[in-house]
Fold ATP-dependent RNA helicase mtr4.
Amino acid sequence: MSGRAGRRGLDKKGSTILMFDEKMEKDVAKAMLKGHSDNLLSSFYINYHMLLNSQRLEDIDLEYILARSLLQFQQDAQLPALKAQLAEKQKLVSVSFNQEDDLETLHLLKEKLVEYKH
């Protein structure tokens, strides 16, 4: 297990030191080192106790802490995709079907058909 290697937004690369306590097959080690990492989802949330403690301490700015949190970073990263989804849904909502004219024509034709039958 290793922590973050580098500073977010500052370093493009970082270094990690791995120490193995048991022998590992070459393929297993390669898959572990070169494979994809698991998704890391933030579980940060501001709770009641955090709010109370922030009122007690003058130097704590909860807005600053929240803005710099992994949770906010992840939510900001999702924003472009969400905006694209919203734009797509707004396009669907704005589609208009001018069926009123067609319905009126259909109604007139139906009335004429009824007249011809009588």
Notes: The CA atoms of residues 5 and 14 lie 4 Å apart. The chain has a mean pLDDT of 84. The chain has five helices and no strands.
